[in-house]
């Protein structure tokens, strides 16, 4: 269950990590030259210049959600960009046994690096360990394995940070308004990530004593549940100032309920980064004013990291010679002021 | 206990040791007592809602909301009631709603506007019902298995069609139907459709040969066959009917949610079965009422509404919902057995 959901976070974002910046270098300790700048500054930026050939095995869950589709697309198109990368991609599956089998096949094929977005992080830990023992470094994408021994590098989203940033955004917007009321439309409550998002939101709101969270209902990450739960919330709360909705997909339903109730007396912040949410923010003719990202570009970054691992390189812009063991993406807030920058990352 | 046979009010049982006496009157009287007990449960809920949240609960808009939210699952439940009364089960209703809704909201279908979406939703629903019906009636498959297979494949197909994406509806005439402006005398169009389906369902089950045959097939299929009923054809029609209801419900859902998604209709099968059971329909077939099922749906929706208005969290909601189902059935059993 849990795993199924984490993909739901949808958004893209901002390419926080990835992009351009892989540096080469780092394999040798020799100071590049004589100057006395810090070593990191001397590293050449990783460009798209072909390096050593790397075969990357990619195994992900079934793309039954917009965000997961975006994950697959991001991984594929990133790999195509590099002439030195061959991507071995398996059919997505939510079946643990099947996914284990697929990863074992990739291990047997002796791919150089593995990128794995497990349907169930805990259940796939053993096969991650197996790959690592076989000398194949694993880039663990988003849903985390049980032990750091099962991966060389983890990259994923920040659910707590989503709540935190949403809370701060709302807090700043309602600053100076005494007795402000906010409500929360959460995602599936039996998921750990939902609890983290709510915790971050609550923690942020503690900074704003003028704001009180007056209601919270959990939907199920679907349009249908978003519509139903939001309609009830609107009926229950005749007056409030802001709404945080955990997920842009259920947000389609939530916005529909808001429209049907004819309400426009509050501001709404979404979560994930769906294209439809971006478009609504840009048009600025409704309650949706911002969304906090959970970027599927992390899959592109995972390919970058896997390539760097395969070529024994580090990350540009950092002083270290090796790629880090974990990277948590930033859940940027996208509103009207910066929407154009993110529009291309919106997923359908 | 739950013997489905009505007591012989009139003594028309001289000859054939048949099947089930056509004691329609007795059946109706019973149904009334059952209906009253359900109305009682609903009344208690309304009192609870009124006490805990007087301003929000006892409000026209809230009444409209509860009825609207009951509409989609309500239409599905009417179809499900027929199937269960005939001794069958349809586990595929949620999946059919999903498939019909995503097919009807594909880009191609949206080009044909309102009619295209409505037509596609209904046709897909009927088509799935036809497959169910043929497999069960002429392929001699157990309804549980046949509709389980339909559940799996319809869900799979809807996932394939959407790629997991949310298909947002862009046809204004469809969307407008869910807006406040479309209410006639304060009644949302979705609720009207629900009402019409309910009335037709009631008439068909209680006032037509088709309805009588449905009850007969559910009570004792072999006796029904001996009595000259084409049991297989009857079964085929019943699953068609359930599919048709799913298609209509899918259209209502499209209007309500403004989109088609492969997760639509999630767990409708369980909600519809639960509502029918609470309404007094026997899972073994042979007895059931449309009124009871619809009251079952309304009880569920009202509970959900009261929970949300009081800001109860989902864990508490689930526990309380389970308890209330048990309570409702117990109350209903007791009142029913005292007649």
TrEMBL record, chain A:
Its main location: other. Keywords: Signal. InterPro entries: Peripla_BP_I, SBP_2_dom, TAT_signal. Residues 56-311 form the Periplasmic binding protein domain. GO terms for cellular component: cell envelope. SUPFAM superfamilies: Periplasmic binding protein-like I (SSF53822). Gene3D superfamilies: 3.40.50.2300. It is found in: Cell envelope. It holds the Pfam family Peripla_BP_4. One of its GO terms (molecular function) is carbohydrate binding. Residues 24-51 are annotated as: Disordered. Belongs to the bacterial solute-binding protein 2 family. This is Ribose transport system substrate-binding protein. The lineage of its organism: Bacteria, Bacillati, Actinomycetota, Actinomycetes, Kitasatosporales.
TrEMBL record, chain B:
InterPro entries: ABC_transp_permease. PANTHER family: ABC TRANSPORTER PERMEASE PROTEIN YPHD-RELATED-RELATED, RIBOSE IMPORT PERMEASE PROTEIN RBSC. This is Ribose transport system permease protein. It is found in: Cell membrane. It holds the Pfam family BPD_transp_2. The keyword Transmembrane applies. Keywords: Cell membrane, Membrane, Transmembrane, Transmembrane helix.
